[in-house]
Structure formats: C-alpha cells, structure tokens
Design brief:
The structure holds two protein chains of two kinds. By secondary structure, chain A is an all-alpha fold. In chain A, 73% of the residues lie in helices and 2% in strands. Chain B folds into two domains: 2-86 and 163-270, Rossmann fold (3-Layer(aba) Sandwich); 91-161, no CATH class. The chains are: A mainly alpha, B alpha/beta.
Chain lengths: 292, 276
C-alpha cells in the first residue's frame, strides 16, 4: 500500500510540474515580444510568435492530424512507431553499456593498476564528440565480418548509445563496489572468503544503492546516443530522424517538430521509468532511508 | 579435533606490531606481548584508547600480520586458523547485511563454507534458538533493536561452531540495561557452547563480570601490564554484580589501569590518536 501511495504521489507531482511548465510557456507567449527581444543589447528573449512558440493546444491537436497532407496516417501513429523503434535501439545500447560498465567496474575494483590506467581514458572517451564518432562506427561496422553475421545499420546507433551509457554505469558501480564498510570487509576476510565470494555476497549488494542512479544516467545516455546517432547517420525509422525531418518544415508547420520532440522526451521517460521499477524491486527489502 | 582440549586456544609469543614502519607516521601499537589462553577461558582485554587491544584482537584473527613474534590458534598458525574458520568474530557495529534477512545473515559463514541448504537451515534454527530470536528469522536487521542485532551478530559468529569467539567491544553501542542483559546472555551462550572468548572492552565492570582473566594493557606502545584472575566461579548471575568479590576485582583492575593513567593522559595529549 505504501508503494501505491508513493507512486500516486510521484505521478501527482509530475502532473503538477507539467502543468506549471505549460502555464509558463503560455504566459511567455502571451506577454513576450513577438519578434524576440533585446536584453542589455543582446538578443536573448525568444520570439513569442506562433512560428517559434506554437500554442500547447496546437501542438497537441497536431497529433490528431495526418503526417503529410493527403495521407491517412495520423502523426501520433508515426511518432509512436518512431519512438518504439528508438526505444528498442536504446534498450540494446543500454544493455550493452550496462554490461560493459559493470564489467569494467569489477576489473577496476579488483586491480588498482587497471583503475589507475583505465579511468583517465574512460573520462577522456566522454569528451569525444558523438557526432564525430557516429560515421566512424558506421564504417567500422560495415567492414566487420564475423562468419555470417552482417552488421545491421541500426546496431551502429545502439553502439553510440552504449558509448554514452557505459560511463556513468562504470563510475557509479565502481564507487558502489568500493563503498562496503571496512567492518564488513574484515568480516568477510575473517571467514577467509575469496574475492569472488566477497564480490557477490558483499560488494555487489552493497553497491545497489549506488548502481540505481548510475543506471538512470546510463539509460538517458543511451537515448541521447541513439537519437543523435539516428540524426547524424541518417538512420530511418527512429524518433531522431523524425525530429530532423519535421524541423525542416518548422516555418510552414511549426507544431509538427514538437510532436517528435515530445516523442523523444517520452522515450527518455520510459527508459528512466523502467530503471525506477528496477530500483523499487531491488530496494524492496532495504531500510527506507537509503532508497529515495 | 580430539586433542583440541590439550592445545592452547590462543598463544601469543613475543608479538610486536608497528604500523607504517620507518615512515613519518610510524605507530608502535604493540610491544613484546605474550599471552596464553586455555580452551574454554573467557579473557578480556582492557586498557585506555590507543593501547592496541583491538590490534591484538585483529592479530589473533589474522586480519593483521605481526611485525615480530608468533601467534597460534588451536595449535595452528593464525593464518591457517582463519582459513579453517576456527574463530568467529563480532564487532561494535553488529555489521549485519541490510539486504539479508536475520536467518540469511546467520547463514552467511555456512554458505561460504559450502554447506547445503538443508544443513544450513537446521543450523540457523539452532542458532536462532540459542540467541532466543526464534520468531525473527524472516525479518530484516533494520527492523530489529540494537541489542537484538548484536545477538544476531553473535549467532552469525558462532554459526559454524568455531571453538573461539573474538569480540571487539560488541556491546559498546548499547544502553546500560541492554548491555547487562547481553552480558548475561553471552555467558549463557558461551557456557552452552563451551566457546573460548577473547573480548575487547572499555568497561571495567563488564570485563570483570564476564571474564576468567582480565588483561590490563598500557597505552602506546601497547604492553600487558598485568593479568588479573577473577574468582567469581563459573556460574554468574545478577547477584554476582552485588558480590564482594566482584567489587574487589573491579578495584584491582582499576588500580592496575590507574598505574597507567598519568602516563596515558600525557601521551594522549600529545598523540590524541585512536587505537586502530
């Protein structure tokens, strides 16, 4: 019952926040300068006209109309299937990223030399611009031949999701694995427990509270990676592609691009929702102070 | 195992422990410590902060290696005794695993030994009985009071039926009433299981009430000043706490500690360091 109440509370707060954002949007649209504004001589205030800031109601009603004039395909169907496509790629990327991240964290927790040697490179890897990496991954993948395995184009997008997802998972898990209280570690060595036993019976369970926020970051990283990869490699079928296509029509049909942007946001929310469910499951028997 | 009774439970010979030897932060924790503990004995280590009593306990447990000297447990090297799980250990923080039920916590050492499920379940039931927590096996540690948690920790330490129990201020975080109750329980448990105990404490009455012998240690570098035998018989009860012998023993432990007191104040004023 407590769980239901917490869920209800969270949903309520989410709705309230959403309402506030909508209200702010409409307030600015009603009062802001139509052609943008200068603030201390700098053009910072966005235009409040219908092209730049369509009404929320316009955006929502756009979902009910066809994607292109004359088509019988409603745009919400297109956005939904695009989001579904990207969700699957993100899940693959997230899964690979989590596996690699946890694997690296175990290695780094086990061997100090690995940690010293590897960690700076992991940090550095995250400074490489994704846009530059995307075409490389596509061309490497295209050249890859392992037996009868053919590298599908979508896998490149998932790999870029992996690239953004593994890092927070690796760092968070590493912190978790090294966070076990000294007394607990002493206890395990008083039982002459092997490193592997200590890992599975103490370090991993003790790392769970650290793992969950890391997974949340990883999940949103996977989505960003996939969406950016879709845009920069021109992969069809996903929400990223829809965003870039609809953005081209921004002058004629300004609400259209927002339908895809919200689709991407929903995608990210779905991913972090999945992690949140996982969190509730993992932390179900823990003292409530540590699970927030 | 048949000749276990003839072997000393613990034998500490000429042991010194120096941390960070040769560095600027060198600490001489223990100096030439000799101590022999017979099977079934209850021995307390008492002394001011920084006297190395916890260090001595960890040396016996082979969680630390002595800089000099030798330690044997049940006639084996300390390292071998640890590998054979010849001792159980309990700390000031019960140190139970949050994610395991009480029963599962007690099972931990048995799992590590590779016991099968049936055997483990039987032993857990036995241990829960021993510490009088029969109905709490399925609860989680954080749902229990501090005293109950500490009883679970004792059950865990004794689950594999080790002949030796090492305890580092296990009741230090409990309130006085719970503490006295736990002392009584510990004596009962040790009598039922004929376990040898090495017990680190700050409390003089606690040391006297529990022990056959109280080992009084000096501040850094830790040395054994005096070993005081407590002759209160093997059956102790709440009445023991009012007995003349109890107060006499308390006085002699206190005087042995007092001898070190002036020295202690001077040394902590300079170092102010902890005993670990």
């Amino acid at each position: 019952m407590k769980l239901m109440r917490r869920l209800a509370y969270r949903t309520f707060m989410f709705a309230v926040t959403l309402g506030l954002i909508v209200a702010l949007w409409e307030l600015y649209k009603a009062t802001g300068p139509q052609d943008g504004g200068l603030l201390f001589g700098v053009r910072v205030l966005p235009r409040a006209n219908d092209t730049a800031m369509p009404h929320v109601s316009t955006m929502l009603s756009r979902y009910g109309r066809p994607e292109v004039r004359g088509s019988d395909k409603k745009i919400w169907v297109v956005v939904l299937s695009g989001a579904w496509f990207s969700l699957r790629l993100s899940l693959v990327g997230f899964f690979l990223g989590t596996t690699i991240g946890i694997g690296l964290a175990i290695l780094m927790a086990r061997f100090t030399t690995v940690r010293r040697g590897l960690l700076p490179y992991l940090v550095m890897s995250q400074t490489v611009p994704l846009i530059a990496l995307a075409p490389l991954v596509v061309s490497w993948g295209g050249k890859l031949e392992i037996g009868s395995f053919v590298w599908p184009r979508w896998l490149s997008a998932s790999i870029l999701g992996t690239f953004l997802a593994f890092f927070p998972v690796a760092v968070g898990t590493l912190r978790g694995l090294t966070s076990s209280p000294a007394a607990a570690v002493e206890l395990m060595s008083s039982y002459a427990a092997s490193w592997r036993q200590t890992l599975f019976k103490l370090r991993f369970p003790a790392a769970v509270p650290f793992l969950v926020p890391a997974l949340k970051l990883g999940a949103s990283g996977a989505v960003v990676g996939v969406v950016v990869a879709e845009i920069s490699t021109g992969l069809k079928g996903g929400i990223g592609r829809l965003i870039i296509e609809y953005a081209r029509e921004a002058t004629g049909d300004p609400a259209k691009v927002f339908t895809a942007v919200f689709g991407a946001a929903a995608l990210g929310l779905t991913m972090s929702g999945l992690v949140a469910l996982f969190d509730l499951y993992l932390m179900r028997n823990r003292p409530k102070e540590t699970s927030t | 195992m048949s000749d276990l009774a003839n072997l000393n439970a613990v034998e500490v010979t000429g042991v010194s422990k120096i941390f960070n030897e040769g560095k600027a932060n060198q600490v001489d924790a223990l100096l030439d410590v000799n101590l022999t503990i017979a099977p079934g004995e209850f021995v307390s280590l008492i002394g001011p902060s920084g006297c190395g009593k916890s260090t001595l306990l960890r040396l016996i447990a082979n969680l630390l290696e002595p800089t000099q000297g030798e330690i044997s447990v049940n006639g084996k090297t300390a390292a071998q005794a640890r590998l054979d799980q010849d001792y159980g250990m309990a700390f000031q923080q019960a140190g139970l695993f949050d994610w395991r039920t009480v029963g599962k916590n007690i099972e931990l050492p048995l799992e590590l030994k590779g016991w099968n499920k049936k055997k483990r379940a039987a032993r857990v039931a036995e241990m829960l009985d021993l510490v009088k927590l029969q109905d709490f096996g399925r609860m989680y540690p954080w749902q229990l009071s501090g005293g109950m948690q500490q009883r679970v920790a004792i059950a865990r330490a004794l689950a594999a039926h080790p002949p030796l129990l090492l305890m580092d201020e296990p009741f230090g975080a409990l309130d006085e009433m719970t503490r006295e109750y736990m002392q009584g329980e510990l004596l009962r448990i040790c009598a039922e299981t004929s376990t040898t105990v090495v017990f680190v404490t700050h409390s003089i009455p606690e040391a006297v009430y529990l022990s056959n012998r109280v080992v009084v240690m000096s501040p850094r570098p830790g040395r054994i000043l005096q070993v005081i035998s407590v002759n209160l018989g093997s059956k102790r009860s709440e009445l023991t706490r009012a007995a003349d012998g109890f107060f006499r023993s308390i006085t002699s432990v206190r005087e042995a500690l007092r001898g070190t007191h002036a020295q202690h104040v001077a040394s902590t004023a300079i170092r102010g360091a902890e005993d670990r």
